[in-house]
Amino acid sequence: MFRDEFKSRYNTIPFAFHKKYYYDLEFNLIAHQHKELELIAMVEGTADFYVDSVLYTLKAGDVLVIPPYCIHRANVYTHTYYDCICFDLSLLWDEALRIGLEKGTLTVNTKLSSKFSHTTAMNQCIRSAVKACEQNCSGWEMQAIGNLSVMFGQLKEASFFVKSKTAIPEHRFEKSVYEYVTKHFFEPITSRTVSKELHLNNSYFCRLFKKSFGCCFAEYLMEYRIEKARLFLKNSEHSISEIALKTGFNSFSYFSKVFKSIVGEAPSEYRKRASKI
């Protein structure tokens, strides 16, 4: 069983959080990126996160910091629960730090904070920020922003932020593939389409893709399309047939079949449930 509670505050401040529960199943989070900085605070269980091709195994008490535009994916194991916070860097008071992270000239020296003495305090800041949002009391915005600011002050004191190094080859490959898929996912593309675009032998492309993304290209493309469909179902008034076409499916019945196999419920059921969150 899997439960994902999602709360967004982007209507007032650029901040959102998820509470992820994985009970009796494992879950693979597909490779993706976004402009917001992301924090993963592990409560219990185990998860393997890959950030720009580097593996970080998270256990209870760990905090993972994912800078903007880093491609990341995860293998989450059973009996795992973690909090996830995404926020726009405009919330940071430190302009030099904000600009450095936004432009990619700064990154974090390990991403996993369990090696630092501030980890316990960081967890407390994250819990307090999430609690403020959940309670929705007067002044929750200042409490959330204040706790995150304290946490980043602790990270800066611990020399957690460093100058970025040149991207490794696997990282550049991930970026190139991801950028192509985001622009063409609704088209009839295959591994041969992308390997030709990147001037790579298709067999070599498939091997490198499997190593970098943890699955074959066809599986990734299908999951990416379904993830886009979930966003359309939650945030648009398009009909389900229109959403199927917008995400690269020419058959409504096939779209519904694939959506249910990946999400666990029909598109109509998902839209109905998502509208109540």
Topology at a glance:
Blueprint: E1 2-8, E2 15-22, E3 27-32, E4 37-44, E5 46-51, E6 54-59, E7 63-66, E8 72-76, E9 80-87, H1 95-103, E10 106-108, H2 119-135, H3 140-157, E11 161-163, H4 169-184, H5 191-197, H6 202-213, H7 217-235, H8 240-246, H9 252-263, H10 267-274
Antiparallel strand pairs: 1-2, 2-9, 3-8, 4-7, 4-9, 5-6, 5-8, 10-11
Helix pairs in contact: 2-3, 4-6, 7-9
Would you mind describing this structure in some detail?
- With 277 residues, the chain is an alpha+beta fold.
- It has 2 domains: 2-163, Jelly Rolls (Sandwich); 169-274, Homeodomain-like (Arc Repressor Mutant, subunit A).
- 45% of the residues lie in helices and 23% in strands.
- It contains 10 helices and 11 strands.
- The mean pLDDT is 85.
Summarize the structure.
It is built from ten helices and eleven strands. By secondary structure, it is an alpha+beta fold. The protein has a five-stranded antiparallel β-sheet with strand order 1-2-9-4-7, covered by helices on one side.
